Amino acid sequence: xxxxFTHDIYxxxxxxxxxxxxALGYWITYELRSRQTVIAELISVVxxxxxxxxxxxxxxxxxxxLRLNRDEAEVRAHALDSEFEEDAPEDNLEFYDQESxxxxxxDDFIEILEGWQDFTAN
Length: 122
Fold this sequence. Notes:
Largest sheet: 4 strands, antiparallel
Strand content: 25-35%
Number of strands: 6
Distance between the termini: 24 Å
Number of helices: 3
Helix content: 25-40%
Strand order of the largest sheet: 3-4-5-6
Number of domains: 1
Structural class: alpha+beta
């Protein structure tokens, strides 16, 4: 998983992730933003998960939710949980949802959070 932290043309912080992990970039850019206290809280939660002091964690966002468990971090768009499930695609067809969901291991996630924390603190 490749990613880059940049600024957009207006100077706002932006996280860009490689194909298959785009949802992480969107979540970081638009849901997490540069809120240092929330970033620090998430780093603490991940540490608790890794030390088996916690089983899971859910952070609900405006468009995406973050779910953490002892193995991974998952970002998932609310749109995937909507009524579209009733209109499931036929046998050989699938909805394109790579930009709506992404996951990674906790070690990678904490590395991303710490990098974002440093990037947005300056």
